[in-house]
Amino acid sequence: MNAAEMAKAVREAKISAVEIAEGAIGRIRLIDSDVRALLTPLFERALEKAEEIDRKIELKQDPGPLAGVPVIVKDNLCMRGQVTTCGSRMLENWRPPYDASVVRFLEEAGAVILGKANMDEFAMGSSTENSAFFPTANPWDLERVPGGSSGGSAAAVACGYVPLALGSDTGGSIRQPAAFCGVYGLKPTYGLVSRFGLVAFASSLDQVGPFARSVEDLALAMNVLSKPDPADATSSWRTRPDYAAFLGREHLKGMKVGLVSEFEDYPVQSEITEALARVESILREAGAEFVPVSLPTTIEAGLPCYYILAPAEASSNLARYDGVRYGLSAEAESLMDLYMKTRGLGFGPEVKRRILTGTYVLSSGYYDAYYLVAQKARIRISREFRSAFEGADMILMPTTPTLPFRKGEHQDDPIQMYLSDVFTLPVNLAGLPGLSLNAGYSKSGLPVGVQFVGPKWGEGTLLAAAEAVERVLGKPTCAFGGEKA
After folding, report:
1. Residue 484: pLDDT over 60
2. Is the pLDDT of residue 485 over 60?
3. pTM for the complete prediction?
4. What does the alpha-carbon distance between residue 426 and residue 414 come to, in Å, rounded to a whole number?
5. Is position 126 annotated as part of the catalytic site?
């Protein structure tokens, strides 16, 4: 069952929340020694929450729209009293004293959180190999990566542990692993979903969003998550629609879909190009009209712009981990020695690389040459997207240029790793919504993802288009079919 079906069955007392939780926990115990999607299981707590849901049903109380639905959340989302590591030794034993707003929204809606998902350290990576604890495997091929940095959340949904999981997306960290794992991943418009309690990587880019195996579940999740939040100064106070109301369209007549001409010269694997053509054909058959759009600055400058601005914000945000206030604290003879030993021991190689890069571009003599130029490029990228959406309701583009790569393949070449996000990160620079969906499988059985990008607050259009594709291609299936399953 998907999340909507589970919640309906629990509300109607056809199945108990405890039974659902026990089934999910059983599957995790069976499979996760191979996939390793979870960092911190919260099984006892989950069963207690499930019992609370069942008691509400017995007392004829409203259990919420996600009644009994098991969920896994990325380990950079705070949960009061629960270990929240961000995949880093720096926070290995840190227990936050408060909940992230999205965690509170989930539990108020009746969701049962089963655990915290593995991730690249402080969300810096595209493969979940940069976790300080262990890498996560792609459920479709255990020798390949699940994408990152939300690889644990994507793998958990792909394995069928849960129908819904939460990730965060700074430059593609929801959409890229969704493509690699063959599930849906939605990065909302910046400001639509609260960031309070999300441990920051790059504050002007980070956004929380859901993974799912059905468009219906994405809409259900967005109805729960997309609330104005006074605890988040960047939260928008605009009225949220009912995202389920965008579903059920018989056709897409009147919808204009943009095709980016500059992608024609970009190296994209042939099976991804074929998937794009397949989705284009489905949308045309549903009545959508295709129009050309041009994003020259976005394609040329998006990647270098992002890898100046994101490390700059990271170097500022991660300065708080100094061994004094919380987290790891190394034994030292002086304050400077404390700083150096703590940060040297607590941060992994990729985090150090980005802190050093960010500090460099913000330093005297280089600020104008790098950071200021990148900010100007970001403005041009935003304007380019706005211009494109004057004639299009959404844009169809690849999620990634390649299929899931093998573990260790890019570990010694960070540039190749960064290139895996080349189609996703401009969306964050412009603060737009993006949805990655499964569009079939390669000859070797690996998932192939494509991406819909919309104008600000255009999530409903993306959901309607994704549902039209889902009707033809079907819903993503659970991936793990090994002997243990």
Report:
1. no
2. no
3. 0.97
4. 19
5. no
